[in-house]
Amino acid sequence: MTLLRDAALAEAFDHGAGAYDRLVALNPGYHGQLRRSARRLGLPDGGSGCRVLDLGCGTGASTAALAATLPGADIVGVDASAGMLRRARAKPWPDRVRFVHAPAEELSRAGVSGPFDAVFAAYLFRNLADPDAVLGTVRGLLAPGGRLAVHEYALSGRRADRLVWSAVCRGVIRPLGTATGDRALYRHLGRSVAAFDTAPAFAARLGRAGFDRVRVLPLPGWQTGITHTFLARRPPERPGGAR
Question: Is there a contact between 10 and 124 (Cβ–Cβ < 8 Å)?
């Protein structure tokens, strides 16, 4: 099973950026699910005074979810695809939202620095060559006690959910990729889910990366058992500065 990685994946997203928003709009509940995961961060007072990193922001759908649910937060959206970011930047945003072009593995080189009160990552980690390294970076960018929400296609582990995903790939994702001329990208997107961690495995990965209070929350609708919100926290510093 060959998956696109790094520069090859960014190039594929560049090519597919023009049709991306139209295609995801065909997914029932796509934007509502992102808002649900953003609300699950649970930042107080609408995020007033908080800094939030939207890692892998794409064309800005996840950024819009954060901006709507956290009207007081300053939001930094980051993506490796210049084409996707051009689409994001072309949309109307409040002054508290800005975008940075950078791979998730090179945030410091692009001037993205913490501390952040929260990090949101939608549909990112299954596309990374080294998710553990990026989780380590995310942990370092969070303030002690800072929160992480990962909104991701991660199958439950039940055979029925894997069969549903396979049917969606055959009946929807691959035909759309062929119709738009982005066959390689959409084949990758379908295969990346099957190759990625199950939901319990990704929760365990978060724990190994040094996060605590790890929770796995299902999302409603046809994606139940296929898409989850993963919530976690960088542990606060103990008295005396110990972690």
Answer: no
